[in-house]
Amino acid sequence: MDSGDSFEEDYDFAILGFGVTESVLASALSKAGKKVIHISPENHYGGATCSLNFVDFINEILNSDSKLFSHVEIGIGSFEPLNKSTILAENQASKARSNEKIGLDNNKNPKTNDLLSQIFRKLELNDDFLVDTLVDKYYDIIDSIVSKNNKYCIELLPKLIRCRGDMISLLIDSNLGQFIEFLGLEGNYIISKSICTKVPDTKQVIFSDPLLSLKSRFSLSKFIKFIETCTLNNSLEDSVSEYPTFKSLLNEKFKIFGREFDAISFSICGILNPESHSSLDGCNSFVKYVSSIGKYGSMAYLYPLYGCGSELSQSFCRSAAVAGAIYIMGTEITEISKGDKLKINIGNSHVANVDSIISSHMHKNLISNSTQFQKESCNDNQEDSGNALDVNISRATGISDLDKDTLFSAYFCINDTYSNQSNEINSDINRNILFVNDRCNELDFDNNIIDAKEMFEKLCPGVGFMST
């Protein structure tokens, strides 16, 4: 919809945010005949799991209004982050200044110049001559990346899709999988103590891995046999009941530690925190992984060619739009007031009257700040957490090339602002505002689908989920 078109219309649901869970709900509700308006302050799909080209990525992490990032460090030509004090010290030491200001080379890409200027202005370098000097110094490095801007994407929160799982099942059942180009991950590897080896996910790999001791091979084989037997006998829950966490199960029962423990808990089961993950859930994740091998080849994981979160979200949003949902991107809710329905002001000119608002916790502050009532506590079960990620771009084309020169590196923390307990919304209005879990701390999207199904069943009891 054109952001310049004013309107006031009634809807069943307003959905805020283009995360995967919100997008699945938008599609399911629209297909169920509900009138949906889907709004996001961002101009990209995927929410916190979006994929961006290099220029958009830099613009996003440098955006002072962005709610995603709490800390950003950038390095050019090395892993060392740029910082104001180091740059000023180097400049003072060299005294390589002339009275003649460096002029802009007309043959240079203005997009690259602008990007570099933004990076150094972010460091609060107010000396125009110094900024121009730095732009000139690093131009060739950054331009070599910008020139290939549309040939790759940077995924803010990388995730994978198991070949057998809730996400793949939904894509197949809804016929949406045909619109996404997938790439199979032929190998699953783990780096431990600077050594990259294949994950011991089958008996063949276990007995061919030269780094595994005889004792480790026995422990891993014993664990795999245990899972196979318990799954076959349907006795998995009873068999692991005495071990409260997945870590205690692997450590105490099977004596699995170190690299082998990391391989099973993270690379196979996708568990980021095995200390708090139940033993049953961990074993079920292992079963899902093993059952995924062989469905589409030797791999267990699939990956959308242009990024997980963005591609999946866009696919479901398009499905919702075909079913009648209205989409507005790059626009925020500026006010919420209560009457017979919730009246929401969208941007400066749009007004929508909705029965309920469904939002990512990522946009909780936005809703809280726009409600025009005396505020009381809003309860939720989210925990405060943050995600720190490293991105580095080099000339490397494979594992053997990892020693090549680094062109660009970035370290950034993604804030779970949606889990901030200090957010408050009036209890009268809160009954009509529903929050979904972004599941940003998980390796796949299966629980996003489970969450979307559960909320849909509450909102539309007796109606088929994603039925056409």
Automatic annotation (TrEMBL):
- Which is an annotated GO molecular function term of this record? GDP-dissociation inhibitor activity
Record-level GO BP terms: small GTPase-mediated signal transduction; vesicle-mediated transport
Task: Name one cellular component (GO) term.
Answer: Rab-protein geranylgeranyltransferase complex
Which domain of life does this protein belong to?
A: Eukaryota
Q: Name one Pfam family in it.
A: GDI
Q: What family does this chain come from, according to its entry?
A: Belongs to the Rab GDI family.
Q: What is this protein called?
A: Rab GDP-dissociation inhibitor
Its organism's taxonomic lineage begins at: Eukaryota, Fungi, Fungi incertae sedis, Zoopagomycota, Kickxellomycotina
